[in-house]
Amino acid sequence: MPEARDIILIGGSAGSYSLIINILESIPFNISSAIVVVIHRNDKYPTQIEKSLSLKLKRAILPAEDKVIIENNNIYFAPPGYHLLVEPNHTFSLDISDPVNFSRPSIDVLFESAAEVYTDRCTAFLLSGANNDGAYGIKRVEHFGGTTIIQDPLDALIDTMPSSAITTSSKAKVLKNKQIINYFCSIK
Description:
Layout: E1 7-12, H1 17-26, E2 34-39, H2 49-57, E3 61-63, E4 75-77, E5 83-86, E6 92-95, H3 107-118, E7 122-126, H4 135-143, E8 147-151, H5 160-168, E9 173-175, H6 177-185
Parallel strand pairs: 1-2, 1-7, 2-4, 3-4, 7-8, 8-9
Antiparallel strand pairs: 5-6
Helix pairs in contact: 1-6, 3-4, 4-5
């Protein structure tokens, strides 16, 4: 697969998992972007999200690994216990520095680093969650010319994250769950 020129980020926490599944189910099988998902997971409790989603969706869902080139048509998940960063050479970097907004992986960390590298070729979605993680990252994506989309707080199971991002954003589209899924159905 060729190196991804475009990146789509999805950040979510409490209450976002069902929507993330619906999003992933709607993605066409051949896309010219990489998709990177960060959800708040506790590294003390092992999960098999990537493996179970790969089986369910019949496509590779990969854990992001240190120094791996970000490729088109791949869906990556940030591993629990690590911040996930995007490096200037379009590879991932894993970091164990302090939690940000009580979270590691942090949505802000991924959004900020990806925005600096992919600039206007970065699209970030922020979904349901119970803290402010992602609000600053949304602002940074906008600063570097990327596109930002926030789940409508009325559709979020927990509206803290989307509501917080709406107050910091100057350009984000606020979409209902169905509109978000429709967006992913139409990506190429």
